[in-house]
Design a protein that fits this description.
Elements lengths: L14 E2 L5 E6 L4 H7 L2 E8 L4 E12 L18 H15 L2 H6 L30 H13 E15 L6 E8 L2 E7 L2
Antiparallel strand pairs: 1-2, 2-5, 3-4, 4-5, 5-6, 6-7
């Protein structure tokens, strides 16, 4: 899935960096960012229903928010080792990688996952936040959304693919070693 690609569901906020980092978006108010800072090992898995292929990526994660990203486990020669690259990518994802509705979720007045009973009424929340504001309300919502928007990056260390359409199923993994990726066929 390509960054910014539009489909029936609109723009997608999932991308890959030039060095193959998996990029997504998150809200800076979420507890997962403190959890990742304390222990960066993560795993992401998803199933593409139409092709019956499951992907699982394990690696180390870090987030890049308004203040930048510190402690990113990257090769110093990678394009992503530059703070300027991350600032540009964060701005690009915010403006072009997500739609107005998803952008509005970053402008909600309450922390995601907090009690709805303690939050302002949902009908007062912005429903859509365009990347360019034209009204004072949009300017305020856009500023809040930008402050809460972060890029979540996963440095892949192990990738597994399970193909469920074949009989028997097929399962393979790639593990990153000192000399590059090593593929192993596994029992599904």
């Amino acid at each position: 899935m390509a960054h910014g690609e539009s489909g029936a569901t609109g723009p997608r906020a999932l991308a890959f960096s030039p060095s193959g980092l998996l990029l997504s978006t998150t809200d800076t108010r979420m507890p997962k960012l403190a959890q990742i800072a304390a222990s960066p090992a993560v795993e992401a898995a998803w199933l593409f229903q139409s092709s019956l292929v499951q992907f699982r990526i394990r690696g180390d994660a870090f987030a890049v928010g308004p203040a930048g990203g510190e402690g990113a486990p990257l090769d110093p020669d990678a394009p992503e080792s530059s703070g300027a690259w991350w600032a540009d990518e964060r701005a690009r994802l915010f403006e072009h990688g997500i739609g107005d509705y998803l952008r509005a979720t970053f402008a909600r007045p309450a922390t995601p996952g907090s009690l709805l009973a303690d939050a302002p009424p949902p009908e007062t929340w912005p429903a859509a936040v365009p990347p360019e504001a034209t009204t004072p309300e949009q300017h305020a919502a856009l500023a809040l959304a930008q402050a809460n928007f972060a890029v979540l990056a996963i440095v892949p260390r192990r990738v597994e693919i399970l193909e469920l359409r074949t009989a028997p199923h097929r399962r393979r993994e790639w593990v990153l070693g000192q000399d590059g990726w090593v593929r192993t066929d596994l029992v599904p």
